Amino acid sequence: MNESTPLVRVRGLVKEHGDGESWVRAVDDVDLEVPQGQTVAVMGPSGCGKSTLLHLLGGLERPTSGEIWVAGRRTDGLSERALARLRRRSIGFVFQAFHLVDELTAAENVELPALLAGRSPRAARRRADVLLEQVELADRARHLPSELSGGQRQRVAIARALANEPQVVLADEPTGNLDSAATLDVLRIFADLRATGQTLVVVTHDERVAATADRLISMRDGMFVDDTQLAGTGTGRLGGLVGLEG
Amino acid sequence: MGRVVLVVRLVLADVRRHKTHAAMLVLAVTAATATLALGLSLYNASQSLYVQTRAATAGPDLVLLAPDTGPASTAALKTLANDPDVVDHNGPYDIVYGTLTARGYSSSVVVHGASPTPGAVDRPLVTAGTWVRRGGAVIERGFATALGVKVGDRVVVSGHTYPVVGIAVTAATSIYPWSAGIGPLGGPSDYTGLLWLTAPEARALAGRDLTITTALDLKLRDPDATEAFRLAHRGLSVRLNLHSWQFIAVQDGHIVQNTQPMLVVGGWLLGFLAVTGVAALAAGRATEQTRRAGLLKAVGATPGLIGVVLLTEYLVLSLLAEAAGLVVARLVEPAIANPTDSRIGHVVGPAGLTLAATTALALAAALLTTLPPTVRALRTATVAALTSTAQYSRHRPWLTSLSSLLPTPLLLGLRLTARRPGRAVLHSCSTAVTLTGLTALLTFYAQPVRGYGIASSLPNGRDVVDRRLLLAVTVLLVVLALVNTIAMTWMTAMEARTSLAITRALGATPGQVSAGLSFAQLLPAVPGAVAGVYVGVVLFAFTSRGPMSMPPRWWLVAAVLATLLATAALTALPARLAARRSVAHTLSAEAA
Amino acid sequence: MQDAVLAMLAKEPSHGYELRARLRRSLGPFGEPMNPGQIYVTLARLEKAGLVVCERSDAEKPDRKVYAVTPAGQERVAAWLTEVGWPKPDLVEFHLKLVAAAASRLADPVELVAAQRRELLRTLREAQQSALSEPPGSPATALLEGVVLRLQADLRWLDACERGYCRRRDESEDA
Questions:
Q1: Which three-class secondary structure state does DSSP give residue B327?
Q2: I need a labelling partner for B74 at 20 to 30 A (CA). Which of B251, B296, B325, B534 fits?
């Protein structure tokens, strides 16, 4: 796979739920290409299908029709087993509700994906320590999730998502349950990840999170209604915002 | 009044919501109480049957047997017949020892010479056909059932062929196969059946070298004074054996001698299984119960009311199940208390002791399973109860490090087991009980079968009955244990579904997850199985009479392996179903 | 205010009092304190700038005058509609822009909102990046945080506008 092949590619993706009265098309004929190293934010009102899109990208749900390609492999027809293996190697997940295992410490939570991938306990633990250092929680490695604040828990979850050096990180409303200070911490981490070239797809309705992305996609009723590049355009209008224009 | 209605409504709503739990409890307690009730009332049932047969056949109070024939014996017997304590008598009549062949079977037989018109004492009740006449034989009913002989068949007694003209029951002898009170020459007897012929034909039969005993039936003025009579007439010059009706009744009890401990112990084991299974379920509902108690407290209900609501449901179900169990016991009793068919009569209701024991079992089952979550619910502060989420499991660092060394399915299985150690213990106990039952069964089957002596080719009736019964109890144990295992696996899968969904999102395959769930059940089952074997052997040794021979070791090993394999197979299905659910669905349901 | 009035004229020529009425309606309670003569002052300025002509000049009765937009005025309206500078704290100008666009059908209000959102997001991004790159404890952080939060609030308002105009569009499509 060379540099120009997109890391994530989607064609004609459709996902339908329910039947009869409750039939709904959560994702309606979506096309998407995410090149390597890009941070994409997907915004939209609740119920517009953005979370469903993310689940489909990560193989947590099966599409009704359409093609999905991740890291050069076609994923929409894979078996559950193969999808699990794919998630082990190539995809990292961050959820709104953190979804940490309550009876494991932070370090034990972070090393879990590495253990599932078959790495030795020692290597997994070492990697976990490095990642916790990266999210500035090295001093909390031995704490249980119940002893951590919401922001700290989400940082542990992000560290966990990075455990197997995934090619793409998928984040579903990562700051949905966080206050603004904790949101800033997460934003800082995302900014660091961008700097290292990590490909990131974030679903959010927090504008601050969306603003960190290189590219913003707006979704409504299962379809993309807007797709803009945010990066590289300095407006220089900051002064005007506070009435300090010359 | 309103509170009673409220309680009833809450209980009904709860039962409707958890139909499976209610069904499991009722099923288990019914089986346990039925078995226990049967076991405890067997002896009384057999005695009662004897008494009823005695009344229906005007059974004698004493049967005298004189092995030496001759005028001295006859004179002695006649003297006794005219004793002032004796109101009426039957005989003296001949008893001839012979061998009988019918329908391919052979057996020892005692032939009683009887009058075509029986007197006031010892009037055997004819249940099929007619009483003896010249050239016709009547077979005792127990013997007939064992041989499979019906009216109209032909039997050969010591070379003579007779048609069977009737089948009858009597109270003058013990049940088949102890129809001969004593053996020829006064010694111990083989297992024998009873046949009646007319007196001249019996004597004619004895014409060759067949042995004869002379017998006399006595009816006393005071039917219970048999012992006094015996003491009064000790030391006679003639050899006499006196069999009182009480002695015969006790002999009747011997047929259920093995069955009783089987059923009583089996009943308690089943009760134990009921408790383990339902306790696991109750623990699983503990959060919900705690929340319910909190809700009731918050709207002003007193702790008393809460306790009543929480306990009523299980108590009512248990008592209903107990009633059902008693009914089942009543229905099954005749077959087990009268396995040889030698007695007649109807079954009486459960005695006070039996009722007390089964109620104790039902109450224990209900209380043990609901007390822990109830107490916890009542003690929890209201606010905490209303907002309580799933119980947090304890962090066990050593276990986590240990499990990291294992391959993924074992890692998951070990961690799942550790989340609910209480349930693991219950599952262990459940498996132990299953293996106790299986071991008892195998050990019983390993005992040498005693035949009925050289002359008989009939199978040992008691052994056959005992084996069948033990098999039935073991099957009940196994079925209950199976239900418990499936229920526990399903509950573990449901409780852990978020955790497992996360693990799948992180890269565990559905195969690994369902293998993990299976391991979580297998791990506690192993020590339980091994313990169960030892307990089974000990129990058997404790309850069996006489020497015990151990079954071959490989039988027990095979039983353990079969149980573990069955556990693995049983857990595979619910585990697989649980592992196939959509990850996204589970996780978003949790986040909502 | 000037541009808004101009945009309202773009639909069709009107009397001064018609324009005033339309403005009052669009502003709701905020239009109460508006000076009745204000509109004529604005119209005079626009005329002077050559963006508006008076169709019938009747010097005695100013309210009989009918004003219309000139070609230059049309250009100015077009430019104003697509401008994405963000006004100072009060949101009146953008609100009137949307109203005028909807009334005159010169632009799709939903599009306008989307364009403005993009711009604000870019600004937010800048402000946020600056906030993150400030050394910890720097006093400028507080100011940047304030800017970020206000922008966030404005973006939420834009979402609400979009929803309103979308609904109106759906209703008119159904009709």
A1: helix
A2: B251
